[in-house]
Amino acid sequence: MSDLTGGIKNALDRGESLEKIKKSFLNAGYTKEEVEQATNEISPQAQFNKQQINQIPNKLQTPSQLQGLEIPSPIPHYAPLPTIPAQEEKKSHLLIIVLSILGLLILIGAGFLGLYWDKVLNFLGL
Hints:
By secondary structure, the chain is mostly helical. The chain contains 6 helices and no strands. It folds into 2 domains: 54 residues, no CATH class; 42 residues.
């Protein structure tokens, strides 16, 4: 595929009319024969489809037509999650700290008992 053929296909893809494309390439310095040959290389079906697309009326609304319309937000609005007051948060932190210290003391106590179990039994006379 030549550069000229690629350029014509590119212009057709952008929605330009075939006549306007031909004039543009003729003004760019290509000969009429080169432009016609490149145009003939493009399948007639592709040219026909592009012309059909150009004839479809634009159904998009301009910003002035959209004024006054309420456009719904794409993000749903949920109620905010209830926040824990600072006082309750401090209490929960304190509880975690106390329970952690208590658990650590139990582990240390169990460790000492494990190490000195035989001495404890002797002390108790068992």
